[in-house]
Write a structure and sequence with these properties.
single chain, Rossmann fold, 2 domains, six-stranded mixed sheet, 34% strand, binds adenosine-5'-triphosphate, ABC_transporter-like_ATP-bd, ATP-binding
């Protein structure tokens, strides 16, 4: 069993300028055996620190970390039965691929036969058979990345830790490696903890995603749950691209009043919003749930909003249309044939069944 458990784990750094600085503010979670969990969040949110604490490269200030059934607080990294793949791969440049793959095993004093067998198996899994005698500089970025993963695989660890492993690759290769990593996870059946700041990578790879901000876990959930039911405005704005729109609204009876429109709320929504009668709230609506009136065939046309088009971006498969509601710029992701030009007064249809409301003070989702 290779579960990874955090029990109220806290990390404070002593920083000359900032004094004592909280990088991780008391995290608790359970990563199940064989689960692929991705930590995601903006730069500095504490995700790498969390990973390095699992690895033992950073000592937590307080709290317990368990790997399998063992408390590993005092265990040296090499005794934690984990393997880490870094952003910069950290390959030995003067060694061949074969030597890079074998190096760690030699250090562990494994037999020659065992090393050979493990290297063979990893190189076949990763498609490196033809490259075993090459040096890292004779490899492409993607191939180097595979060697870095191979070095982790040969050690047959309980838990794989990945720290932004794809960030040095170009966009196309990143997508290819993403698919390879997902397949690798299925094949290895190992527990994987993966850190990235890229929400698309998180959404495509993670069985569950841990969203962090300012050292605090905001939500832990499968990708679709994060997308459909974000717990607060941070998660709602971070997951999904382009980001969810936030519009200032007021609840009056069964209506949400926004600048230029009064939306009658579906019954279920109106019931949930009753406690906010007369109060300001934030309406959250994703760009893909706003349609041009001329291309809104499957949505009920009752929630209309007219606004002047500010910017149109043509992306080929869709257009992004920007307009203002009150102080806020709103993005609609519309059908590419939607008629929209800068300066045009256009009617948009909001699919209110997909909307959320947030408390403007706590930023927590109401519905
Ligand atoms: P990134 O995506 O930029 O790597 P991150 O979410 O991985 O960000 P961490 O590297 O975990 O963030 O850092 C969290 C916070 O702790 C940051 O504010 C960082 O400046 C601070 N920090 C990290 N390492 C140290 C250190 N050794 N000493 C002092 N502060 C540190």
């Amino acid at each position: 069993m290779a579960r990874v458990v955090f029990e109220n784990v806290r990390k404070e750094y002593e920083d000359v300028k900032r004094g004592s600085f909280t990088a991780v503010a008391g995290s608790s979670f359970v990563i199940e055996d064989k689960e692929f969990v991705v930590f995601v969040g903006p730069s500095g949110c504490g995700k790498t620190t969390s990973l390095r604490m699992i690895a033992g490269l950073e000592q937590q200030t307080s709290g317990d970390i368990l790997i399998g059934d063992r408390v590993v607080n005092q265990l040296h990294p090499k005794d934690r039965d984990i393997a880490m793949v870094f952003q910069d791969y950290a390959l030995y440049p003067h060694m061949t691929v074969r030597e890079n793959l074998s190096f760690g095993l030699k250090n562990l004093k494994k037999s020659k036969a065992e090393i050979e067998e493990k290297v063979k198996s990893a190189s076949s899994i990763l498609g490196l058979d033809e490259m075993l005698e090459r040096k890292p500089r004779e490899l492409s970025g993607g191939q180097r990345q595979r060697v870095a993963v191979g070095r982790a695989i040969v050690r047959d660890p309980q838990v794989f830790l990945f720290d932004e492993p794809l960030s040095n690759l170009d966009a196309k290769l990143r997508i290819q490696m993403r698919v390879e990593l997902a397949e690798l996870h299925k094949r290895l059946g190992a527990t994987i903890v993966y850190v990235t700041h890229d929400q698309v990578e998180a959404m495509t790879l993670g069985e569950r995603i841990v969203v962090m901000n300012h050292g605090v876990i905001q939500q832990i959930a499968p990708p679709t749950e994060l997308y459909n039911n974000p717990s607060n405005m941070f998660v709602a704005g971070f997951i999904g691209s382009p980001a969810m729109n936030f519009i200032d609204a007021q609840i009056q009876g069964d209506k949400a009043i926004v600048e230029g429109a009064a939306f009658t709320l579906p019954e279920r929504m109106a019931r949930s919003m009753k406690a906010y009668e007369g109060r300001s709230v934030i309406l959250g609506i994703r760009p893909e749930h706003i349609f041009g009136e001329d291309f809104a065939l499957h949505v009920s046309p009752e929630h209309k909003l007219s606004a002047t088009v500010q910017v149109v971006e043509h992306l080929g498969s869709e257009n992004l249309v920007y307009f203002r509601v009150g102080e806020r710029m709103v993005t609609a992701k519309v059908h590419p044939e939607t008629n929209a030009s800068i300066g045009q007064l256009k009617t948009f249809i909001i699919d209110l069944s997909k909307a959320h409301f947030f408390n403007p003070d706590t930023e927590v989702r109401i519905i």
